[in-house]
Design goal:
The complex is a heterodimer of chains A (503) and B (649). By secondary structure, chain A is mainly α. Helices cover 75% and strands 3% of the residues of chain A. Chain A has 24 helices and 2 strands. Chain A starts with 5 loop residues before the first helix and ends with a helix. In chain B, α3 runs parallel beside α15. In chain B, 73% of the residues lie in helices and 4% in strands. The chains are: A mainly alpha (503), B mainly alpha (649). Chains A and B meet through α13, α16, α19, α20 and α21 of A and β1, α5, α6 and α25 of B.
Chain lengths: 503, 649
């Protein structure tokens, strides 16, 4: 373990950097842009040792920092990562750079504040993944809403007020219940240590109530059917960067919450109620897939596709119990959880790429309607190549990261129940249908309008962002082992832990 | 050493594709075709070397991992190669046909936009197909399987301005995905029960599960092997275009002709046949699955051939012929005559690629008019195309001595000896199919190459033989189309070429019951069988109807109007899919969205609660009047109430 407080640096560097960007003001927008880029690249650079110096042979928390914060209540400033949170932190620092670059000259209105909001959001989100103290976690969790609220509210579309309020109320409603659960456990255990909660003895009723409280909080974040309707509205109104962060990182916090809180704290309730989460996940995969098919707004379509893809995450997590109970399946419980994790990282890349691609079109034509386009390949061949590639990744083509998680979860689901795998695998057809139908209408065909005829292909900045994401999607698709290896022991440990009843 | 050779075989086309695709503006047209031809040529030469090692030099089976994709919960996901005589044969066929198509494309695509893009795609296809056939595990198989599907998608939609092309490519991808849906579940079953994705390990583990049953629906117990085999075969039905998942293949003709030859005739569509043959140790354990395979194959062979008779687009005739021939291969698998199926796969790859390329040559001559009714007499203008097309057609109909004769007769004989359920049905259809094959093939041949000459006088002036880059591949493909059957049937079908690779249970050994002394003896033997006379009959009928008495065809058409209607509508599959699956999905999506999301969740639950809060607030607002005396009054009332409660209690 190194002495330098690495995690704190990754949390506070972007927050302080964001404050500096804010102070730099809009007098010379280029200064704040370059400053923002510098901060985001530095943060990413600082987060790299989390991977390179990570010890993947232990499930214990690493890079731990612990200091008394409010000693009267046993509240600590307590940070640490394991194989589950570390990849998500690096995903956050990675995506933020791209968001800064993607907003470069696109955002002309108060650019310094825009950049500052994203940098601060980055620090706070890293804080959510790294916090091991319940109060600290909760503070970061709620703090995360503020910059996103501002981003949508200021740089958003015409219905941004409705969208922000819906977004805020939904997530806030969920988190209030989570707070109650956290306070209850504080009274039971006398500390706010999340890891202590893992070992806290709870009877079945307590577990069920705590589980439901967490479920509400995390299901809204993921979002799971039926508490998903805020997401399409938020995406449609959010500026491109907001959508990217929302889809690539914020949704993952819900999935992360299940692994860090719900399942280890309330394993028996998770087991008893796994049918509920599995049911909601499968509805997300199938029902939402069909809903995505009929969208006429590209961003809504991708938003719905995100919900369907996140369904694989929660499905992968909660089939664990059935696989362990199935005598015909000798192993495979970890396969599901790992598949869900890979799906989260992969979806981070692909959804970011999809929203950035739509952003490229939106910046030119100021329309998200599929019907405004058609034949884009004629005027933007390089862009079309990227869009087709990312769409194929979205449809889960092997060789791209989109395949890895879905494949693992389907293999695991088969071990739980044939019909789970059957329903999950329908995404092969439906997912391809909604994605490729959009591609057909937007990219291919004759040039549909004068506006499309005037389109200019992507510039170097856009090409850079999309290339970086394309490489990430390809590398993870062709060689997922490095990602699996760092999370392997932590997930093994988690599955062991939840396999033991607390009763 | 071996590993670097194999990696070169796979990666050379990929490098070519990358150069042609990413540097297309820098290297120009010639650069693109040289880069890809060098890549594919390298792979072709090395594949021939591999084939030599395995077929003649007695090389050991090579089964090694290249790298570990990942390990999760003890389940290993590898990328690796399995090279045996089956793989070596496939590699040689794929790279040879691909090389021919590459050379041909220089002539065919000469004046087209997207020349470099086209070369990049076909080289990428070669890479994908090689990954598929060289795989030693289910993961990489699925990678290759979907990657060839992707390239097929890109190439069918090559003319992306054409609405029909971009519809056809989406349709092809989605129908294939229906197959892959079954395929991936099959792989999941393999992974669960055998706990491995490696072929050799899975085949070793399988016998222990011969009697395992699983419960899928209600109380009924299904044999695990039957479920696994049928699920995997659903994947093959998509890729190899078997009824009812055949609907994408005729539409795939929207793509340029060279890829119809390479992808939609010679290689990709045979991936399903290759896969089932590779999985023969599994299929031999389920007679139910074999019957399923046999019935689907025979049905496709006959009914798709029937449609071929009434097609007027030169490429579609060949496409339906391909569907029908794929049906023959699948039927061979169903009767455990895997060797015969693979043998037909090989001979078909040559003569069908030849026929497609010849059709492309004719299309070039006709300035992209593809209607055979407008053609005629072309043999005078395009002699090389004509002669090679004639040889290809004779091979296709199974004219004695030609390569197709050996492969098709072996299949029909094997079905004849089979005793599994459905064999009788299949035998009748396959034998009748021989007549159909000869009829549609020579209908096309006579209409295109014989008769008076193109309907359009203007077209006649421009008709001339294609350049050497086009005719050379035709000649090079015609040679194996004629001869390869005679020289290899003894070893491949009746000999020991596939020993240790294909598993055939003793009670399914249909090929073993066929008397075979020599290739020449096999030809002589055919004189005593029905199929030969049916083929000759079909040829004669085509000659008589289409060169002597053209009235018969239109007469028949009016008499059998209902049959013509059914064939013209392709039995209604497209309409049904369009209405039920495409339309139904959209309706369902609209219903879920409008009713589920908008009315129930957002309307009632979300906005409803918001309105309830609003309503409550408006009620509560009534008592917040702002008058001090109202509040004082309320306080006194409350106090009174509390006091009363205390006192009374």
């Amino acid at each position: 373990m190194i002495d330098w407080p690495l995690l704190s640096t990754v949390v506070w560097l972007p927050i302080i950097g964001g404050a500096l960007v804010l102070i730099s003001g809009d007098k010379s927008p280029n200064v704040s842009r370059w400053l923002a880029l510098l901060v985001s690249v530095l943060t990413f650079a600082v987060s790299i040792p989390l991977y390179t110096q990570f010890d993947s042979s232990t499930a214990a928390m690493q890079f731990v920092e612990k200091a008394a914060w409010v000693p009267q209540f046993g509240v600590n400033y307590y940070l640490g990562v394991d194989g589950i949170s570390m990849p998500l932190i690096i995903l956050t620092t990675f995506i933020t750079i791209l968001v800064v670059i993607a907003g470069w000259e696109v955002i002309q209105f108060k650019p310094s504040q825009y950049m500052a909001a994203f940098l601060m959001m980055e620090g706070v989100m890293v804080g959510v993944f790294a916090a091991l103290d319940a109060v600290l976690f909760y503070v970061f969790w709620e703090a995360m809403l503020i910059p996103m609220f501002i981003v949508i509210g200021i740089w958003g579309g015409p219905r941004r007020v409705y969208a922000t309020i819906k977004f805020f109320l939904y997530t806030f409603l969920g988190s209030v219940f989570m707070l109650i659960a956290l306070i209850y456990m504080y009274f039971q255990s006398g500390s706010m240590d999340v890891l202590a909660f893992h070992d806290l003895k709870l009877n079945h009723t307590e577990q069920v109530l705590i589980f439901l409280a967490f479920l509400l909080a995390f299901a809204v974040k993921v979002p799971m059917w039926p508490v998903h309707t805020w997401l399409p509205d938020a995406h449609v109104e959010a500026p491109t960067g907001g959508s990217v962060i929302l889809a690539a990182i914020m949704l993952k916090i819900g999935g992360y919450g299940f692994l860090r809180f719900s399942m280890p704290i309330a394993p028996d309730a998770s087991h008893t109620l796994d049918w509920l989460v599995i049911g909601m996940s499968l509805v997300a995969v199938v029902y939402i897939g069909f809903v995505a098919l009929v969208q006429s707004d590209m961003k809504k379509l991708v938003a719905y596709s995100s919900i369907a893809h996140m369904g694989f995450v929660t499905l992968g997590f909660f089939i664990v119990f059935m696989i362990m109970a199935n005598p015909a399946a000798t192993s495979g419980a970890e396969l599901g959880v790992q598949g869900g994790m890979v799906q989260m990282v992969s979806h981070g890349f692909i959804s970011a790429a999809m929203f950035l691609s739509i952003g490229v079109l939106y910046d030119r034509l100021h329309s998200r309607e599929i019907s405004s386009y058609g034949g884009v390949v004629n005027t933007m061949p390089w862009f079309a190549a990227f869009m087709v590639f990312f769409s194929m990744a979205n449809a889960g083509l092997p060789g791209t990261s989109g395949f890895v998680g879905e494949f693992m979860v389907i293999l695991a689901a088969f071990r739980a129940d044939f019909w789970y795998a059957f329903l999950a695998a329908t995404t092969l057809i439906v997912g391809a249908a909604y994605t490729l139908w959009m591609v057909k209408r937007v990219i291919f065909g004759e040039i549909a309008s004068d506006a499309v005829a005037q389109l200019k292909d992507i510039n170097a900045r856009e090409a850079f962002v999309l290339t970086v994401l394309a490489l990430a999607v390809l590398i993870l698709g062709l060689w997922p082992a490095p990602l699996i290896d760092v999370m392997d022991v932590s997930i093994h440990n988690l599955v062991q832990h939840i396999g033991v009843s607390k009763l | 050493m071996m590993e670097s050779i194999l990696l070169t075989i796979v990666l050379a086309p990929l490098v070519g594709a990358a150069i042609a695709g990413l540097l297309r503006n820098q290297i120009g047209k010639a650069g693109a075709h040289w880069a890809t031809i060098l890549g594919v040529g390298t792979s072709c030469v090395l594949s021939m070397y591999i084939l030599y090692l395995h077929a003649f030099a007695g090389a050991e089976v090579y089964n090694q991992s290249v790298y570990t994709w990942m390990v999760s919960d003890g389940l290993r996901f590898e990328v690796g190669f399995l090279i045996d005589r089956l793989t070596a044969m496939m590699m040689a066929v794929v790279t040879f046909v691909s090389l021919m198509v590459h050379i041909y494309t220089i002539g065919y695509m000469h004046d087209e936009d997207g020349y470099q893009r086209f070369f990049s795609y076909i080289a990428l296809f070669t890479f994908s197909m090689l990954m598929l056939v060289m795989s030693n595990n289910f993961l990489q198989l699925f990678f290759g399987w979907e990657a060839v599907g992707l390239v097929s998608y890109l190439l069918i939609g090559f003319y992306f301005k054409k609405d029909t092309a971009v519809f056809a490519n989406m349709k092809a991808f989605l129908v294939n995905r229906v197959g892959d849906f079954g395929f991936v579940l099959g792989i999941a079953a393999v992974a669960m029960y055998f706990n491995t994705l490696d072929y050799a390990e899975a085949f070793a583990a399988a016998p222990a599960f011969a009697d395992t049953t699983i419960n899928i629906w209600g109380d009924e117990q299904w044999s695990l092997m039957t479920v696994v085999c049928i699920l995997l075969f659903i994947g093959a039905m998509g890729k190899s275009a078997q009824v009812p998942l055949h609907v994408w293949l005729p539409d795939s003709m929207e793509g340029p002709t060279p890829i119809s030859a390479l992808i939609h005739a010679a290689t990709m569509v045979t991936a399903g046949i290759f896969m089932v043959a590779r999985m023969s140790p599994l299929y031999e354990m389920s007679e139910t699955a074999l019957t399923f395979v046999l019935v689907i194959g025979a049905t496709t062979a006959f009914f798709m051939g029937l449609i071929g008779i009434i097609q007027n687009d030169i490429k579609r005739v060949v496409a339906y012929s391909t569907l029908s021939q794929l049906g023959y291969m699948v039927a061979a698998l169903g009767v455990s005559a895997y060797a015969a199926g693979l043998f037909h796969l090989m001979t078909h790859a040559f003569f069908k690629a030849l026929l497609f390329l010849a059709a492309g040559s004719v299309i070039m001559g006709m300035h992209h008019d593809q209607d055979i009714r407008n053609m005629g007499g072309i043999r005078k203008y395009m002699p090389i195309t004509h002669w090679t097309a004639l040889l290809g057609s004779l091979a296709l109909i199974g004219f004695p001595g030609f390569s197709g004769f050996f492969s098709k007769d072996a299949i029909i004989e094997a079905v004849h000896y089979s005793t599994i359920d459905g064999a009788g049905y299949a035998y009748v259809l396959l034998v009748a199919g021989v007549f159909l094959t000869a009829l549609y093939s020579f209908r096309m041949y006579f209409l295109v190459f014989h008769g008076k000459g193109p309907r359009d006088e203007h077209a006649k002036d421009h008709l001339h033989e294609s350049p050497w880059v086009v005719t050379l591949p035709l000649i090079l493909l015609a040679i194996p189309s004629v001869f390869i059957g005679y020289f290899t049937v003894g070893d491949m079908v009746f000999g020991d070429y596939f020993n240790g690779i294909l598993t055939v249970a003793p009670e399914h050994n249909t090929l073993g019951q066929i008397e075979f002394t020599s290739a020449w003896g096999f030809v002589m033997h055919a004189v005593h069988g029905v199929p030969l006379y049916l083929a000759l009959g079909g040829l004669f009928a085509a000659w008589y109807v289409y060169t002597r008495k053209p009235g018969i065809a239109s007469e028949l058409r009016t008499r059998l109007d209902w049959a013509h209607f059914a064939l013209d509508q392709k039995y209604g599959f497209d309409h049904f899919n369009q209405a039920v699956f495409a339309g139904g999905s959209r309706l369902l999506g609209k219903f879920f969205w409008n009713v589920g999301d908008k009315v129930i969740i957002d309307g009632i639950a979300v906005n409803g609660s918001a309105h309830t809060v609003g309503w409550l607030a408006s009620v509560v607002r009534f008592i917040q009047t702002g008058y001090l005396y109202h509040y004082a009054f309320a306080v006194i009332l409350g106090l009174l109430g509390l006091l009363t409660w205390f006192v009374v209690r």
